[in-house]
Each structure stands twice: as structure tokens, then as C-alpha cells.
């Protein structure tokens, strides 16, 4: 099966088009003020309109109040909302009622217990996104999780892999984990928040060519 590719933290039409040309399936917009990739809801809504019809737009939110998250989703109209903070399974599940909106939940993976804890999102979300554990930011840190924890794991929900992926390591990450979707942000940048169009192309090529 073809590995799906999400390029996150985009802020410009050029970066969206570079991701599209390279064969990415998803592009993400981060609405989280502490992030170097933060865009306002107005900017996210404008960027969302630039996403080609064959791709999906992902709005990344972190630990927002449900009412504010609902307003953000209504404003931006993404295909997918990616919750990347302390959202509960119940809180995530509420947003699935906004179908066809897809709901993803990022989970930091530190050890085998993290994978057990992630099971609470089975049935509550459309996809579980495994990322490195939170540090000074909840994500976008360029840190990889221990892929061996996912090797042979019996997944009970659709899932994806994030955390420190770049053109040099993504093929090995897929080989070890069998990830059906890979997600990168800082791994395709020249500086925090600055996307490098060549690195986006190289990342997608590395996914396709292994
Ligand atoms: O990108 C950010 O700044 C960010 C901020 C807050 C939460 C998540 C964030 N990014 C997401 O984190 C993972 C891993 O990113 P990276 O490839 O290690 O930089 C990915 O889903 C990003 O979209």
C-alpha cells in the first residue's frame, strides 16, 4: 500500500505547491502561538483555500477549549483536525460528529506503556499519530521516538508516525514500523518555521523510493 505523507507547518502557497508536486497527500497548518510555525486562523483559512482538491488540509490545534476549537474548525474548514495536546478521548470523539471532518490525535510514545495508554483513543478518533514525547513544545521538535516500540505492534486503529522524520531516516522508519502514514515538519526546514522546498521533495522521494 502507498504510504501517505503529511507535510506540516506550512505558511505559504509555494510550500503547499511544493508538497503537492512532490506527492504529499496531506498538508498541515499549525495554530498554536508558541510554535515557530504558528499561523492565525485567518491565515490558516486562506492557506486551506490553496490546497489542491486531491489533497487533504489538516488543522493542528493544541489543548484548546472545545468551544474555541469548534470555532477554529468552522473558520478554517479543514478536512482533518489534528489534536496535539492534552485532549481527552471523549473530547476528541465529540468532534467526530462534525463529519466528514476527520479527527486525529497525536500521542507521545516514551515506552510500551505509552502504547497501552493510546488505546483509549481507539474508536474515539479516525487516526492515532505516534510522536516523540512532548518536551518544551508538544511537537515539532525534530525528535524521533524509539521506532522499535512500534515494530510488530498490533494496531487497533488507523495510525501514522511523526517525530524527527527527514529524508535520511524516513525509509528506515517505515521499514521498522510499517507506518502507513508519515508526518514531518522540522525535518523539511532550513530553520525553525522556514520550509525548504527541496527538502520537501527529497522527503517525499525517500518515502516513495525507500
Ligand atoms: O510543528 C509544531 O511547531 C508543533 C507545535 C505543537 C504541536 C505539534 C507540532 N508539530 C507536529 O509535531 C509532529 C512532529 O514534528 P517534527 O517532524 O518532529 O518537527 C508533527 O505532527 C508536527 O506536525
TrEMBL record:
Please name the top-level EC class of this enzyme: isomerase
Instruction: Identify the pathway.
Output: Amino-acid biosynthesis; L-tryptophan biosynthesis; L-tryptophan from chorismate: step 3/5
Q: Give the highest taxon in the source lineage.
A: Bacteria
Name the EC number(s).
Answer: 5.3.1.24
Please list the reactions this protein catalyses.
Answer: N-(5-phospho-beta-D-ribosyl)anthranilate = 1-(2-carboxyphenylamino)-1-deoxy-D-ribulose 5-phosphate
| Keyword terms, alphabetized | Amino-acid biosynthesis, Aromatic amino acid biosynthesis, Isomerase, Tryptophan biosynthesis
What single Pfam family name could you report for this chain, choosing any that match?
A: PRAI
Enumerate the GO terms in the molecular function aspect.
phosphoribosylanthranilate isomerase activity
Q: Which Gene3D superfamilies match?
A: Aldolase class I (3.20.20.70)
Q: Which residues form the N-(5'phosphoribosyl) anthranilate isomerase (PRAI) domain?
A: 5-204
- In its keyword annotation, does this UniProt entry include Isomerase? yes
> Which GO annotations describe the biological process of this protein?
L-tryptophan biosynthetic process
- Keyword Isomerase set for record: yes
Q: Which family does it belong to?
A: Belongs to the TrpF family.
Return the protein name. Answer: N-(5'-phosphoribosyl)anthranilate isomerase
Supply the source organism for this entry. Answer: Alteraurantiacibacter buctensis
Q: From which lineage does this chain's organism come?
A: Bacteria, Pseudomonadati, Pseudomonadota, Alphaproteobacteria, Sphingomonadales
